[in-house]
Amino acid sequence: MTQLRVVLADDDVLLRQGLAGLLERAEVSVVGQAGDGPGLLKLARDTVPDLVVVDIRMPPTHTMEGLEAARVIRRELPDVGILVLSAHVEVEQAMELLAGGRRIGYLLKSRVADVEEFLEAVRRIAKGGSVVDPALVQELVSAQRRRNPLDALSAREREVLALMAEGRSNIGIARRLWVTEGTVEKHVRSILGKLGLSETDDDHRRVRAVLTFLQAP
What we know:
- By secondary structure, the protein is α/β, with parallel strands linked by helices.
- It folds into 2 domains: 5-144, Rossmann fold (3-Layer(aba) Sandwich); 149-215, Arc Repressor Mutant, subunit A (Orthogonal Bundle), CATH 1.10.10.
- It has helices at residues 13-25, 37-47, 65-76, 91-98, 115-126, 134-147, 155-165, 170-177, 181-194, 205-215, and strands at 5-9, 29-34, 51-55, 81-86, 104-108, 130-132.
- It has a 6-stranded parallel beta sheet with strand order 2-1-3-4-5-6, with helices on both faces.
- The longest helix is centred in the middle third of the chain and has 14 residues, at 134-147.
């Protein structure tokens, strides 16, 4: 890591200096420090570092200044790696950032307390990889589970929908489940209602229900 050059941006001077100390002890060259977005952009343009480490929220509004600066850096200096630090998991912002591709990372500030983990993240991004905080992964998994439209269906309705996905008619489903065709029709109506599939001129509700089933996690 001797040749690695890093710029740090965080309005918390103590944290910034602490990170600088960690990096320098790991033989990383900290070529500049900034306390706000404009300062970071100037340093990045002047020094063209290998990596910038930036707080997602910085002055003056403490909203998304760090993220905005990261966007500009990615656009103007696409080969510069970016590691964004955040006090909290912010899924939407993190996903937008990570969509930028290689040499990108998102870590919670609390993760920095694990020095080896932080340094490993820096190394990985510098080598062209990506880093995603485990807490963000967990949040995405939980959010995906919450968004699963099939959760609203009963076990029997899931069975009926699975058989619909196999291309079976109501009669075929009734024979498979040993129930009447009328019972299947009631299940199908319930499924369509719970999935919010209203009738339209362009879409066939049964097909849309099957697509929902096939696309569900």
